Amino acid sequence: MFIVITCMISGIGVGYLLRLRKLRFIHRLVLVLIWLLLFLLGLEVGANEMVIREFGSLGFEAFLLAVGGTLGSVIFAWFLWLTVRPKKQVQ
Amino acid sequence: MKGSLIILSFFATGILLGIFRIFPHDFLHYNVSFYVLCGLMFSVGISIGNDPTSFRQFRNLNPRFVFLPLMTIAGTLLGVMTVSFFLKNRSLTECLSIGSGFGYYSLSSILTTQCKGVELGTISLLSNIMREVLTLVLAPWMVRYFGKLAPISAGGATTMDTTFPIIVRTSGKDFAIVSIYHGFILDFTVPFLVTFFCSL
């Protein structure tokens, strides 16, 4: 896994060195690679009978985790908002 | 929204081809996705390093909002920790690694699949897509009850791209820079946190 992070950091270095050139194609490349990877992930999911059989319950767990994470972060943002909100704030 | 639908359709097509074994199954044993992942991370790095203007914009950031990304990370991790007590067949670290996607579903699901397998990768994909959708749908409600920073925290790593327009619309133009700053920091922490919790 550290190889993956090393790839990103060396990418940042290369991108910075080439910062005078506008590498517009890079965003498109990122998008295409993401499509390809999710297609591959789908292939793997589809070939895995256990995951397919339990897709519904996996989805439910995913939903609970999404709600938990979102709600937790919203509450913490609220704490920060209560301490730093602009004084002139009118509702 | 359109972007996530395209991504989902690639995932769905993959599933169908996988179920009906249309694609040669041996293909998966060559670990192609790992090399593609390395290429993706390299490209993501280039796009970060190649755009120093986004760093310069942060000078205009209101210093009171500097700690917002930390609040998002702490809040999310506490939230998924709470949920993990109710999920009997998931360990705490598994839940934390899913939560650390912060809505960046493409990257987090792939990283999770690489080290924890397809099952957890699928949960990670679905869960982080749902987070983005929840933010898009509930942003006005969040602003009303939890203040103008709430949709930014909820959006997680997506606040400089997919959820940016809705944030500017509901919280106001004054929050555009905070939103970009927040998305940038979280984008950057996703690979580190996901890998960290996966390796525990």
Can you walk through the features of this model?
Chain A has 91 residues and is mainly α. Chain A folds into two domains: 1-52; 54-85. Chain A has helices spanning 2-17, 25-47, 49-53, 55-84. Chain A is flat, with a radius of gyration of 21 Å. Chain A starts with a helix and ends in a 7-residue tail after the last helix. The model of chain A has no long low-confidence stretch (mean pLDDT 84). Chain B has 200 residues and is an all-alpha fold. Chain B has two domains: 1-30, no CATH class; 36-46 and 67-199, no CATH class. Chain B is 72% helix and 0% strand. Chain B is built from ten helices and no strands. Chain B has helices spanning 2-19, 32-49, 53-57, 68-84, 92-99, 105-116, 118-146, 150-155, 164-171, 176-199. In chain B, α6 packs antiparallel against α7 (118-146). The longest helix of chain B has 29 residues, at 118-146. Chains A and B meet through α1, α2, α3 and α4 of A and α1, α2, α4, α5 and α6 of B.
- Radius of gyration of chain B, CA atoms, in whole angstroms: 18 Å
Q: Structural class of the secondary elements of chain A?
A: mainly alpha
Q: What is the molecular shape of chain B?
A: globular
How many discrete structural domains of chain B? 2
Biggest interface and residues each: A-B, 72 and 96 residues
Strand content of chain B: under 5%
Low-confidence stretches of chain B: none
Counting H and I runs of at least 4 residues, what is the number of helices of chain A? 4
Strand tally of chain B is 0
Distance between the termini of chain B: 34 Å
| Alpha carbon gap, first and last residue of chain A | 48 Å
**Biggest sheet details of chain A:** none
Main sheet: strands, sense, barrel of chain B: none
Low-confidence parts of chain A lasting 5 or more residues at pLDDT below 50? none
Give the topology string of chain A: H per helix, E per strand.
Answer: HHHH
Query: In the residues of chain A, how many domains can be counted?
Result: 2
Structural class of chain B: mainly alpha
Oligomer: heterodimer
Q: Quickly count the helices of chain B.
A: 10
Number of strands of chain A: 0
Strand percentage of chain A lies at under 5%
